[in-house]
Specification:
The chain is α+β, with helices and mostly antiparallel strands. Helices cover about 65% and strands about 10% of the residues. The chain has ten helices and five strands. A five-stranded mixed beta sheet has the order 1-2-3-5-4. α3 packs antiparallel against α4 and α6 runs antiparallel to α7.
């Protein structure tokens, strides 16, 4: 119960009790006690309104003090869900109020008593039902606000989906076109070149461009999808795919992979993506340098991946354009799996990536 409600109830009890203490309707000790009991019963009006009214009625019939009974009737009217108990409570209170009239010496006295009882009990019931309707309307407004908020979120999701579809179309028109041109040019270079190294390099470029184009189209399908089943993702890389990236033609890589069987798929993907990102960064920032890759299982069943490259043997080229999000993505992936990710330069001019993941389930 809120503090405000407690203070209101204590104030009502005090008013009803003051009625008995001042002796406005009481002439002996019994009537005083009944009035105080009816006043104290108001403390139960929020939890057990009918009991509160029952405790107030004896004082109404014996002393004519209406304060506690009228307040209790108001509470019954505001809380009652069925009409039977409300009609009974109103009728009993009406009878007590009518009998509390001082004298019945004429017809006018009877009429005044009926009018007094009707206005007092009817007013309490009317205010109680008004309070109940107000509460129900307030609850309905809250439901409408929630429904409106849900509708706004739905509209926002639809707007995002539409924008994603628009971006997917733009990406397909621009990026895939450029990648396709790279594939065509690399194929043409393979045909015209006489140097075997140039042919091998062109073939590598063509293969990487074709793979990139396939992955791009898969991501575009995801962007255009309206639901989780509309465009399922293709097979995700695992440890079995490491050989595809550990023997590149343009890098000298010494790899030692000694990982236990049965690693969780998420852990396998983290290992693969870390090595892939590390080799890509070597191509960008230290082409031609020697790379060592070590992926081992720890004594506790976890995984440690260390990728280290030496300083570039040639002058460092201009860095390729990058969004600098690769390491951030790897760090977030490691943290989601409960591990750590560290990357930084070495004293000899090289660079090191260190991934550590705990044992999976």
């Amino acid at each position: 119960m809120k503090r405000r409600d407690v203070l209101i109830d204590l104030g009502l009890v005090a008013v009803a009790a003051l009625d008995g203490v001042l002796g406005l309707y009481t002439t002996d000790l019994l009537e005083l006690v009944l009035t105080l009991v009816g006043a104290a019963g108001l403390l139960l009006r929020r939890r057990i309104p009918l009991l509160s009214l029952a405790l107030a009625l004896p004082a109404l019939f014996l002393t004519g003090g209406p304060i506690a009974s009228v307040i209790a009737l108001y509470t019954v009217a505001s809380a009652a869900t069925g009409m039977v108990w409300l009609v009974v409570a109103t009728a009993v209170t009406f009878l007590g109020l009518g009998l509390s009239w001082d004298t019945f010496t004429s017809v006018n006295d009877h009429v005044l008593a009926i009018v007094y009882a009707t206005m007092t009990s009817g007013g309490a019931v009317a205010l109680g039902r008004l309070r109940r309707n107000q509460s129900r309307l307030s609850a309905s407004l809250d439901e409408l606000r929630l429904a409106r908020a849900d509708e706004n979120r739905r509209v926002a999701r639809e707007a995002v989906a539409a924008e994603r579809a628009h971006l997917a179309r733009e990406m397909h028109d621009v990026v895939s076109h450029q990648v396709s041109l790279i594939t065509v040019q690399a194929g043409a270079l393979m045909v015209r070149a006489d140097d075997p190294e140039v042919v091998e390099t062109a073939d590598t470029i063509r293969t990487l461009a074709s793979t990139t184009l396939a992955e791009l189209r898969q991501m575009l399908l995801v962007l255009r999808a309206d639901g989780p089943e509309a465009a399922p993702l293709g097979p995700q890389p695992t440890l079995r795919h490491l050989d595809e990236i550990l023997h590149p033609a343009d890098l000298e890589v010494d790899a030692r992979i000694d990982l236990r069987e049965g690693l969780p798929p998420a852990t396998q993907r983290a290992v693969y993506r870390t090595i892939q990102e590390g080799l890509t960064n070597v191509r960008k920032h230290a082409p031609g340098s020697h790379v060592t890759v070590t992926a081992t299982s720890t004594d506790t069943g976890g995984v440690q991946v260390i990728l280290r490259n030496a300083a570039s043997p040639a002058p460092r080229p201009d860095p390729a354009p990058t969004a600098r999000l690769g390491h951030l993505g790897l760090s977030e992936r490691a943290h989601m799996l409960g591990g750590t990710f560290r990357a930084g330069p070495l004293a000899d001019g090289g660079y090191e990536i260190d991934l550590r993941l705990p044992a999976g389930p």
